[in-house]
Amino acid sequence: MNTRFSVVLALVASILLGGIAFPASAQRGAPVRPARTSDGHPNLSGIWQAINTAHWDLEDHSPSPSQLYQTGAVGATPGGQGVVEGGEIPYKPDALARKKLNFASRLSLDPEVKCYMPGIPRATYMPFPFQIVQAPNMILMAYEFASSDRVINMGKPVEAAVDTWMGTANGRWEGEALVVDNTGFNDQTWFDRAGNFHSDQLHVIERFTLTDQDHLLYEATIEDPQIFTRPWKISMPLYRHVEKNAQLTDFKCVEYAEELLYGHLRKDPSK
């Protein structure tokens, strides 16, 4: 189970002390207005998940086989509708050529294969749930894949001290929407399994908007002048897990990637 984040305890304590306004009708199964925190903002706390094929490819795509025939239908890519506004990612010509090379070598180059932290926005729409724990001065987002997490600063904006996989996040409220401004990324993550990528100049602005108690509208505007000709945007719904005793578990994948990454360093490759 997810016990890796000591910051969760502080956030949960803050929430309990501050109080969250849950309508009484929520316990009766009647339709309710989304819950709000004691400071009046929408309460986003819960376990959420995207249900689409953006993890395989942000753009429109047809079903396709795996590069490894041994995986059969299990390794195939499902077809799906894109989540990019306008349909296509606006690559510069040389960057588009690299994207195609990434796709051709995805089984060895995709950071997901290596168990790297997925980055933003990819962490949001991987086929794993993630948890939001909300407090007035910070918001934790914890992800199953690779035990990744990020803390969104809700106070005075801070600058990234160093480039990282998950970036540095500064949040603010704009009406009913949580807006998260993300900078300070390295260039070691992709957007999906199709090879869509970025440089260390990546800048992502996210918007999380509750449309009702159990649905979030997720939007992300992506800017990277080294790779793209202009900013572009993705959007999708996120769904709250409402099953009894819903919990976030860990997917600690490092041990699954060790052979791929370091097996060639053995003195005797046959062992």
Task: Walk me through the topology.
Blueprint (H helix, E strand, L loop, with lengths): L5 H13 L1 E2 L14 E2 L8 E4 L43 H12 L1 H4 L12 H4 L4 E5 L3 E6 L5 E5 L14 E7 L2 E7 L19 E10 L2 E9 L8 E9 L13 H9 L9
Parallel strand pairs: 6-7
Antiparallel strand pairs: 1-2, 3-4, 3-11, 4-5, 5-6, 7-8, 8-9, 9-10, 10-11
Radius of gyration: 20 Å
Number of strands: 11
The main pleated sheet reads as: 9 strands, mixed, barrel
What is the total domain count? 1
For the biggest β-sheet, the strand order reads 3-4-5-6-7-8-9-10-11
| Bulk shape | globular
Uncertain spans: 1-6, 15-28
Distance between the termini: 33 Å
Order of helices and strands: HEEEHHHEEEEEEEEH
Tell me what the CATH architecture is: Beta Barrel
Keywords:
Lipocalin; alpha+beta; 5 helices; 271 residues; nine-stranded mixed beta barrel
Describe the fold and architecture.
The chain is an alpha+beta fold and 271 residues long. It has a single domain (6-61, 83-265), classed as Calycin beta-barrel core domain (Lipocalin, Beta Barrel), CATH 2.40.128. It contains five helices and eleven strands. Strands 3-4-5-6-7-8-9-10-11 form a nine-stranded mixed barrel. It has a two-stranded antiparallel sheet with strand order 1-2. A hairpin with a 2-residue loop joins strand 9 and strand 10 (215-223). It is globular and about 60 Å long. It starts with 5 loop residues before the first helix and ends in a 9-residue tail after the last helix.
